[in-house]
Amino acid sequence: MKIRNRALAGISLAASAVLGLTACGGSTTPAATSSASGSAAGASGEITVYNAQHESLTKEWVDAFTAETGIKVTMRQGSDTELSNQIIQEGQASPADVFLTENSPAMTQVENADLFADVDKATLEQVPTEFQPSTGKWTGIAARSTVLVYDKAKISEDQLPKSMLDLAKPEWKGKWAASPTGADFQAIVSALLELKGEDATEEWLQGMKENFKAYKGNSTAMKAVNAGEVDAALIYHYYYYGDQAKTGENSKNVTPYYFKNQDPGAFLSVSGGGVLKSSKNAAAAQEFLKFVTGKKGQEVLKNGTSFEYAIASDVPANDKLVPIKDLQAPAVDAAKLNSEKVTDLMTKAGLL
């Protein structure tokens, strides 16, 4: 499996405003800071991270980074496009030093506005090329796989769709769910557009409109499957594994199905991280990104409770996850993913 290492195609600010809801959401509010003594590579002081990743995951990174370096970190939490829009509006006056996202389209939006500094070579060397854009303006920090979670009591293995495209067929009418307003789902559709073209994507979205049930948020869609409201839901993998690691109450009746075979439904989405040109402490900002993609940062993914995929510094995924090499994800040209076109197509289909 390979993910080509180019940045996503341009995303207009107007279109991204429509994309503003993400899987986790959240408003842009200051979060707690963390501090300790010591520093690395001569970096010191403090930085501000605009964080669209899961707050709990980034807090683990922040706490470990501060404990090692003594660099104080302030987090401002929000959704992917909420924060990317804010960075663009703030421009060179942005107080952000680092931007972290769940999905990569928001990274490309900021890159297209020419607001990212080059990522340090030492950081890029920690990340396999399939998880970073060729520009070097940002890098992958984690990844998540598309899955279909389904009700084991209602669907047997031989009844599962061979392809994500099958979900648009009449036999799946009323049987599956998704969160179409979320950045997660729109990234999946972006991959479908790149892999199968506009006509096939438009046809699938029209079939989706006829067949699916809309929920707000991946967790809510999974809960609906677990409660018997719907047979299956198209989400990212870590919602299932995260719930299983807690009480399992919202996933006890479901199991994840991986499409594999380079199917559009096997899409592997990359979370991104980048340093802003506006950073007032570029050395510390670069050090933070290097830490996140380094062994200790990636071990937070391997050993923590986020259940997202570690992708850098030769750190393997959490033992509970299907190894990346076994996902058989399609080779997606990230530079050609067109989120603006996806928004247009989903709006035309009545999904937004």
Strand and helix layout:
Elements: H1 13-18, E1 29-34, E2 46-51, H2 55-69, E3 72-77, H3 80-90, E4 98-100, H4 105-112, H5 121-124, E5 139-151, E6 176-178, H6 183-196, H7 198-211, E7 212-214, H8 218-226, E8 232-236, H9 238-245, E9 254-257, E10 268-275, H10 282-293, H11 295-303, H12 339-348
Précis, in short:
Helix content is 34%, strand content 16%. The chain is α/β, with parallel strands linked by helices and 352 residues long.
How would you describe this protein?
This protein has helices at residues 13-18, 55-69, 80-90, 105-112, 121-124, 183-196, 198-211, 218-226, 238-245, 282-293, 295-303, 339-348, and strands at residues 29-34, 46-51, 72-77, 98-100, 139-151, 176-178, 212-214, 232-236, 254-257, 268-275. With 352 residues, the protein is α/β, with parallel strands linked by helices. The chain has 2 domains: 13-143 and 269-322, D-Maltodextrin-Binding Protein, domain 2 (3-Layer(aba) Sandwich), CATH 3.40.190.10; 144-267 and 341-348, D-Maltodextrin-Binding Protein, domain 2 (3-Layer(aba) Sandwich), CATH 3.40.190. Strands 1, 2, 3, 4, 5, 6, 7, 8, 9 and 10 form a 10-stranded mixed β-sheet that branches. Strand 2, helix 2 (55-69) and strand 3 (72-77) form a beta-alpha-beta unit. Helix 6 (183-196) packs across helix 12 (339-348).
